[in-house]
Design goal:
By secondary structure, this protein is of the alpha+beta class. The protein has helices spanning about 5-10, 25-35, 55-75, 75-90, 120-140, and strands spanning about 45-50, 110-115, 145, 170-175. The chain has one domain (about 10-175): NADH Oxidase (3-Layer(aba) Sandwich).
């Protein structure tokens, strides 16, 4: 198996990290890989805000947990039902609000990725950028996990500390660090490939 495919097969969403900080050179390297992602008409809509302050990471985790719970409680029943499975999966426990760090899982670095609010293709572009970052992290011996709940950071008291412009919106965050777990691969669906000849 070639190294690129091997990295793809070995990457996992890791939610347990040790406390070792990550060198800025490694963070720069994974972000450079993110910048190599394709984007619609080469707009490169992403901006990266890297948070390594442990106290602020913990504070934002708690504030995001509360903001997410509040937003979800406001949703209509149909949306709630649609979100219920993924919400439980992301929180891992019914009492996730009580966890020490339910959102960022003790990772030493959080990369918030934002885009202009006016760019309708940014979600797709940032999805590709995020995958590049996570694969680069894997290839460098780092673990990672995409954090969709990070979009609720805009509804927290501490949001302004990130310095994100009002014209931007957070699409996703990626946590990276030295993982202390090796999750088993999940079963992949095989009945979703169709050749049209």
């Amino acid at each position: 198996m070639n190294e690129t495919i091997k990295t793809i097969y070995e990457r996992r969403a890791v939610r347990k990290y040790d406390e070792r900080p990550i060198e800025k050179a490694l963070i720069n390297e994974v972000i450079e890989a993110g910048r190599m992602a394709p984007s619609a008409i080469n707009m490169q809509p992403w901006k990266f805000y890297v948070l390594t302050n442990k106290e602020l990471i913990k504070r934002l985790s708690k504030e995001i947990s509360r903001a997410a719970a509040s937003e979800i409680s406001k949703m209509k029943i149909r949306k709630l039902m649609k979100l219920a499975a993924s919400f439980f999966y992301l929180s891992h426990r019914l009492d996730f609000l009580k966890l020490e760090d339910a959102v960022f899982h003790g990772a030493p670095a959080v990369i918030f990725i934002s885009s202009p609010k006016t760019n309708e293709w940014a979600d797709l572009d940032i999805g590709m950028c995020s995958q590049n970052i996570m694969l680069a992290a894997q290839s460098l011996g780092l673990a990672s996990c995409p954090i969709g709940f990070a979009k609720y950071v805009e509804k927290t008291k501490s949001y302004k500390k990130l310095g994100i412009a009002e014209t931007e919106q957070v699409i996703i965050a990626i946590i990276i660090g030295y993982g202390v777990e090796k999750p088993e691969p999940k079963i992949r669906l095989k009945d979703n490939l169709f050749f049209i000849e």
